[in-house]
Amino acid sequence: MPEKPGVESLVAIRKKLHARPELSGKEHFTSRYIENILEELQPDSLSKNIGGQGVAAIFKGREPGPRIMVRSELDALPIKESNNFEHRSKVDGVSHKCGHDGHMAIAIGVARYFSINRPSKGELMVLFQPSEENGEGAGKVMSDPFMNENRPDFVLALHNLPGYPLNRVVLRNGVFASASKGMIVRLKGKTSHAAEPENGLSPAMAVSDIIRELMLLQNEPIFRSFVLLTIIHVRIGEIAFGTTPGEAVVMATLRAFENNEMELLSEKAVDIVERNARLYGLRCDISWTEEFYATENDVRINKVVEDVAEKNDLKVTHLQKPFKWSEDFSCFTREIPGVLFGLGAGENHPELHNPDYDFPDELIEAGVKMFTGTFEKLLIKSFKWQKLLS
Ligand SMILES: [Zn+2]
Ligand SMILES: [Zn+2]
Fold first, then answer.
1. Residue 98 CA, ligand 2 centroid: distance in Å
2. How much distance in Å is there from the Cα of 159 to the middle of ligand 2?
3. In this predicted structure, what is the pLDDT of residue 2?
């Protein structure tokens, strides 16, 4: 019998990480802590500073075979924790409100399992990725030389999901999570005395038209699936009652189920801004931030995950539509076949990114079992797929 993952010690690790949260790109304590734990598990290789604070360990099987990556995130959020339990965040204004502390504990459980029960074939790679919350980490990891030298054949990740029953496995063939990105529009005219607006060039009318047109854009019949544009911030001039403004900023978040629909939405949004800027004689500058692609699941691997859930007596929910939120795991699935699946965190559990959220420790055991089971089954399946191809 393979050894149990040792859930209590994983819970202790999770709580320790919860108490010491760090923001995206600043995961110094977290990555060192993870590195020390991994080192004790004696992997065949242990690498750090991948795409920033990223850490990865590889556990090789007795015979060569595919390299399967399990990804966890390292970062927390700039949210003040409202919980009062003992393991509450000790860092003011920062806390693990997305459950990445739990995802890390699960990934360590998987590493521990395969350090004891070495795979017969292939390799397990556990990757602890920095900067998921701002969408930068996965892209940086992908372009790190480490990934070139240790490119996985398959990639796996999970996200805990409040709103679904505890330990419910949530799956979707194809797109699982949406594409999204931030748009920053800067308009420049000319300031003047508020008594003489005719001597200046105020962007106020342009801002008004741009907001209106951007907000109506999603209703255009050109889009075949869900798109959404949300205005998130607007600023015109300064608070000075004697001045006609000469500058403005408009920010919006764009979302779409499909990557090509996102391209179309972006193009149309740019058209609206540029046309209005021209019309009002303003200079404009458009930049983009926090860009996420849609996360697309591989149909064959999705079936493997489903079988593993059933084998572990975990119920499965198949999503009718993708989630409207985004995940930078899409940077991996764009190039490498993989699956991101959900694990229910309880129907009445506080939502992700809410100040009272805390990762439910009941998910750790199921999370470890899902990954180890999927690894083992995917290994067997992939040899069959290879035979079919050759
Ligand atoms: Zn999050
Ligand atoms: Zn998250």
1. 4
2. 6
3. 44
The residue among 293, 207, 201, 294 whose CA lies nearest residue 252 is 207
| Residue 351 Cα to ligand 1 middle (Å) | 10
CA of 329 to the centre of ligand 1 (A): 12
Q: Rounded distance, CA 56 to CA 181, Å?
A: 28
The ligand minimizing its distance to the Cα of 354 is 1
The CATH architecture one would assign to domain 7-178+294-389 is: 3-Layer(aba) Sandwich (3.40)
Mean pLDDT in residue range 159-164: 98
Ligand number nearest CA of 104 is: 2
Output the CA 260–ligand 2 centroid distance in Å: 24
Give the architecture (CATH level 2) of 179-292. Answer: 2-Layer Sandwich (3.30)
pLDDT value at position 32?
98
* Residue type (1 letter), 373: G
Tell me the average pLDDT of the chain: 96
pTM: 0.89
| Helical pair 7-19 and 28-40, crossing angle rounded to 10 deg | 160
Which pLDDT band, with edges at 50, 70 and 90, does 390 fall under?
A: low
Residue 262 tokens, joined: 């996102």
